[in-house]
Structure formats: C-alpha cells, structure tokens
Amino acid sequence: MTRLYPARDTHIADRRRKVAALRLRGMSYREVAKHLPERIHGFNEIVNPDTNVPYEFKTVQRDVKFLEAEWRKEALATLEDHKAQMIAELDEVKRAAWDDKKYFYVLKALEQKAEVLGLNQLPEINSVTNNNLQINFDIEQVPTDELRRMAQVLDAATNGGAPPAHDPRIIEAG
Known about the structure:
The protein is mostly helical. Helix content is 57%, strand content 6%. The chain has helices at residues 6-24, 29-35, 57-99, 103-117, 144-158; strands at 124-129, 132-136. The relative contact order is 0.06.
C-alpha cells in the first residue's frame, strides 16, 4: 500500500519512539511533552511540523495510548508464538519417547503440554460426604467456558436433570 504522506508517517514514528523512551524512563505525560522539543537521550528535537510549535500534552497522551496498545499486542503475539513453539517441541519429545518406548517421558511431555495449555488447573476436591461436594479453586484461573459448563452441570444436578430453560444465570457459549 502506498502511503500518501511518508514524511508525516516518519515524523509520527520518530515522535512515538521518543515518547516511548521518555515515558519508559518514568516521565509523566507533561514531562514528556516538555522534553520533546529538546535534543536529549539520543533523540533530535521534535516539534509539530505544521506549526513548528512543541506538541501538547494531549498528543503525548494519544501517543502513549497507541504505544501501550501496540506493546500489549506484541506481548500477546510473542507469548502465543512461544507457547506454540513449546507445544511443537513437546510433541516432538513425545513422538521420540513413543518410538524409543520410554513411556515415562511420554507422560512427562503430556503433563508439560497440559501445563502450557493451562489444562492442569482443575479444581481440588476436598471431600465428598452425604452428597455434599466441597471444591476449592481459584475462579480467576478457570476459563469462562469451563465456568459456564460447571454452572450448567450444577444446575442440572440440583434441578432434577436439566437446567431451567430461561435461567438468566446460564450464558450459552457462542
């Protein structure tokens, strides 16, 4: 795709690099705006090319919001790439262990893969007495679809087999 204003895009990218560097050094938005027109930390002076006036606090604030969104996106992508590579490596270890009939290592690879995927964070069952079940778990660690499934199972168990047809507490997984 051809950019209509490549010089402006370059200027914005340079400004955001400097904003990022200053913000990551602990400066407030106002401090960053104050230092943009200065030649510091290996960066040139940055002023608004249209007015030749320093940028305002609001421009810095918008840049920081843009940068934070980019950083989050990069972190998630990096994490997902790392998980994918680990899963592929564990699959290869498992295949080699099967070939060598080293079943202990097959099981270890499966355990580690479950850990990477978050599948081993199941609730701990403490006791079952007289049809009372006590379960301890950190609700924030349980995926939403699993919580929905658990709610449906509990409702079915307490309502004679099936959850009520129009129960607002049950959200259908989409």
